[in-house]
């Protein structure tokens, strides 16, 4: 078994950094090898564009999909992107560790999706979803929020956490991953706990760390999030009229 962590936080000493460290230690104790992409530390360039492609498929007009496919075929893909693809290819489990900023992942992680999940080699019009390139591999989000858990409930002011994470989960499913339910560490900025209750807050953080380690020790029993696949859709890409989910 091999796991790869994609770490998307600008401070290695942050709580996100602590969770990434716990993941490495816990998985290593199971005999799993672990590698890490430190997107900020490695200065990953998040902006897809012409500057990344010296030998262009079309010098007159930039199409990201066309240039990604051409660079793959010509073996002129940017080195940082190829490095990330190689890391993902070697992994059986991919963990994305990041804070929830503005109801989504940090921009550096979104840019990582834009540049690393390249058209041609990693997905095509047909090779995606349950027939995607990474089928058989698992992916797991480990996410931190500033607000407490109640605010991310279905009627909470932060918005339902399942809906906020859905685009990321679905993108991973799009690439073929079996997506495990996320680990969400709520309230790491204090969660309304007053400064004079600092000891209570520290206990809260310690509990989250223990919960993350426990989760990592029970991954084999985790069932992936269910998604629809090619067999569920009609020729227009819509859920079949006779599909059981139509009656759920």
TrEMBL record:
Transmembrane segments: none annotated. Keywords: Oxidoreductase. Belongs to the NAD(P)H dehydrogenase (quinone) family. Pfam families: Flavodoxin_2. It comes from the Bacteria. GO terms for molecular function: NAD(P)H dehydrogenase (quinone) activity. One of its GO terms (cellular component) is cytosol. Residues 1-192 form the Flavodoxin-like fold domain. It comes from Salinisphaera shabanensis E1L3A. This is NADH dehydrogenase protein. The lineage of its organism: Bacteria, Pseudomonadati, Pseudomonadota, Gammaproteobacteria, Salinisphaerales. InterPro entries: Flavodoxin_fold, Flavoprotein-like_sf, NAD(P)H_dehydrogenase_qn. PANTHER family: NAD P H OXIDOREDUCTASE-RELATED, NAD(P)H DEHYDROGENASE [QUINONE] 1 ISOFORM 1.
